[in-house]
Design a protein that fits this description.
- The chain is mainly α.
- It is built from four helices and no strands.
Amino acid sequence: MFWLVLILSGALEAVWATALSASDGFRRPRPTALFGVSLVLSMAGLAWAMTGLPAGTAYAVWVGIGAVGTVLLAVARREERLDLARGLLLLVLVGCVAGLKAVA
């Protein structure tokens, strides 16, 4: 259960990072509200997951999921391009996150 909450919290990290960018310096109310809600939920999930998982591993997995998710959201929104090098590096990052889960 800790891993599921951690994965969902990592996905919410991608949501709040994307919403933060879209908030235009907190001048747009909807992205700002989405940022606040997803930030609180993401942090709460991370904090809870850390009660049952090693803190370093949980944090690394959370950041990795959030980083990959943020890039993929930007690509889906056509704000960034995904070239071969970036795609391969993201795959390496996903592999590292999966490896941390496998050994924890």
